[in-house]
Amino acid sequence: MRIVLSAAVMIAVAVALVIRLNSAPSVLTVGFYGIALILSGTAIVLSRRGRTRVATGVLALGFGAVLLAEKLLSATE
User: In this structure, are residues 56 and 12 in contact, taking their beta carbons and an 8 Å threshold?
Assistant: First the structure.
């Protein structure tokens, strides 16, 4: 269940990254969304190894990173 959720978050982050890069390409965009992708991938690996609580925390952190990135990037434009 958490693996599927993590994969869905990764896809959503990747789509948001592509949309964001088309509208305003910047290194900050790639950095923030890259961090969120890494955290989502980490959640998948942790779920496979049985660390589901930690994976949920990492996934929440990844989702929070995307929201924070979106807020910071919109404030800089």
Answer: no
Sign of the four-CA dihedral 32, 72, 27, 9: positive
Looking up tokens 């599927």 gives 4
Sites in the chain below the pLDDT cut of 50: none
| Residue that has been written with the tokens 């990844």 in this structure | 62
pLDDT for res 12: 83
Write out the residue range of the structural domain in which residue 49 sits.
2-76
Number of domains in the chain: 1
**How much of the chain is in helix, strand and coil states, percent to nearest 5?**
90, 0, 10
**Whose CA is closest to 36, among 53, 15, 59?**
59
Q: How many CB atoms lie within 10 A of CB 73?
A: 17
